[in-house]
Hints:
Helix content is about 10%, strand content about 55%. It is mainly beta. A 6-stranded antiparallel β-barrel has the order 1-2-3-6-5-4.
Amino acid sequence: xxxxxxxxxxxxxxxxxxxxxxxxxxxxxxxxxxxxxxxxxxxxxxxxxxxxxxxxxxxxxxxxxxxxxxxxxxxxxxxxxxxxxxxxxxxxxxxx
Length: 96
């Protein structure tokens, strides 16, 4: 059975890692049911060099949403010059 789309988030935010900040646009979806929720999405606006840096250094990677809230993420790369794939590792606002 397909997982139900629970909520989406889109906007302009910033990826932060240590003392570096990368302005990005993001699109995130939460899918699941009462037993399991998977939150993943994409970020756009990174240069190929920045994408590589994020793949190499994952510790403490966070995404600041347009609402000002911050979530921890893992970055999985993507097509060169295209959107990068992410998964959210901390609770998303509005998902209980």
